[in-house]
Amino acid sequence: MNPSEIPTGEASWREYSVLVVDDEPGMLSFLQRALGQRCGRVDGAGSVEQAAPLLGRRLYDLIVLDIALPGRSGIDWLHELRDEGYAGDVVLMTAYADLDTAIDALRAGAADFLLKPFSLAQMLNAMQRCFERSRLVRENFVLRRELGALDVEGMVGQSAAMRDVCDRLKRIAPTPATVLLSGESGTGKEVAAPARRLPRAPCTP
């Protein structure tokens, strides 16, 4: 694969772990080699029965899962994982796709669906979308914790000035005093006012 075809952000994939489940030795070996050059850890299994113990020992960031497997199918296992509370992304692969299969994959909670044969670029793009979602979820969690620490809904930031603003809001809010919030448009009056049910002055030019 030409370096120019590598998805943007792939250099940071070393923090991610991937579990590949496919009963075709050639495909399993190919994906393990290709993804192992990019991700921090890539494990492989030829069936659900082989993959389940691996997932029991490690929480993978992504599972790349074939649908047609010996024993339990990939979709059946995905349904089981979702029922058990597994929230990680899963990319399903199949060589025998039809509308019913695609609908079942979506209902099972697949993040993406690749039809074999697919190119490495298609797989990497699917992974990039999954990792981007994962990153946004983590950032959202961090922001929510910061908001909780500030105890003022909607206020974001940890600078000394922002902490001072939040402290003042918390001191003033319990009082019956009328408070005028003034400032230029875009400075956050609309965030500070409802945070503690404070009246807000109209934006001034």
What can you see in these coordinates?
This protein has seven helices and five strands. The chain has 205 residues and is an alpha/beta fold. Residues 1-6 and 196-205 have low confidence and may be disordered. Helices cover 45% and strands 12% of the residues. The longest helix has 31 residues, at 120-150. It has two domains: 3-143, Response regulator (Rossmann fold, 3-Layer(aba) Sandwich); 159-195, no CATH class. Helix 3 packs parallel to helix 4. Strand 4, helix 4 and strand 5 (112-115) form a beta-alpha-beta unit. The radius of gyration is 24 Å and the shape is elongated. The protein has a five-stranded parallel sheet, sandwiched between helices. The protein starts with 16 loop residues before the first strand and ends in a 10-residue tail after the last helix.
Low-confidence parts: 1-6, 196-205
In CATH terms, the superfamily of the largest domain is Response regulator
Quote the average pLDDT: 80
- CATH C-level class of the largest domain: Alpha Beta
Per the CATH scheme, the topology name of the largest domain is Rossmann fold
Q: Please compute the radius of gyration using only Cα atoms.
A: 24 Å
* Helix-strand string: EHEHEHEHEHHH
- Please describe the biggest sheet, giving its number of strands, its sense, and whether it closes into a barrel: 5 strands, parallel
CATH-derived architecture of the largest domain: 3-Layer(aba) Sandwich
Structure classification = alpha/beta
- What is the total domain count? 2
Report strand %: 5-15%
Shape: elongated
User: Strands of the largest sheet, in order across it?
Assistant: 2-1-3-4-5
Tally the beta strands.
Answer: 5
Separate helix tally? 7
User: How many angstroms separate the termini?
Assistant: 55 Å
| Helix proportion range | 40-55%
